[in-house]
């Protein structure tokens, strides 16, 4: 099953066709893409009988983030060994922070450049369908509604200013969390623990890896997070990035106004965002 946010309305997607959920369900389910996670099991039962191929053709440019307003947005740093090595930050366990919800953007939106050193980070995003606290590893995937693509855009000067790094602030400028283009349920993938992901800047592949190389897998991250905090339906988890970020290049390389940033994950699709002029960092 593939879900999407089409101009603010929840749809099921099959190829180039989209079925409007509210209209097709006779109002049983809301048009709000975020609200579906609160009734995830009930929705899945209904969706199994839906005829998505009967939907209307749609323009992908009208797609927004399939998770537009999660109550909690977790982000994980240093979750690929090669990325740990390239940035020189020795750490035995992934670092957890947040990207503020106001930074969420759609898969084709422009990203304003705030000045400074703006970097890219392709990430698999896991979205929670069934919430919980103290989730066991063998049950973790049953709590996942689906997977989508995320770009953890980062302004490195803000991120590293001061004695204590400001990860959340440096990664939460407007549109710094594009997601999409769809939310794919895990059963759609041959192995949801092993999918290819890449970042392409102006036609050049700068990141290329597989999620099987994560230090903590999706299920393990759910265990780690839920051992402390309660995961809520609709929460999004950015699961970390592999090597190839601009900060790790010699010399470092960053995004400029006019650059095209393409982010792909196998079985999910791609984001295509252009960097545009924005308000300068204070």
Automatic annotation (TrEMBL):
Molecular-function annotations in GO: catalytic activity; metal ion binding
Residue stretches making up the Fumarylacetoacetase-like C-terminal domain: 73-276
Keyword tRNA-binding found: no
Key words of the record: Metal-binding
Gene3D superfamilies noted in UniProt: Fumarylacetoacetase-like, C-terminal domain
A GO BP annotation: small molecule metabolic process
The keyword Ribosomal protein appears for this protein: no
Superkingdom in the source lineage: Bacteria
Pfam families linked: FAA_hydrolase
Annotated family: Belongs to the FAH family.
Stated name of the protein: 2-keto-4-pentenoate hydratase/2-oxohepta-3-ene-1,7-dioic acid hydratase in catechol pathway
Organism listed in the record: Microbacterium immunditiarum
Lineage: Bacteria, Bacillati, Actinomycetota, Actinomycetes, Micrococcales
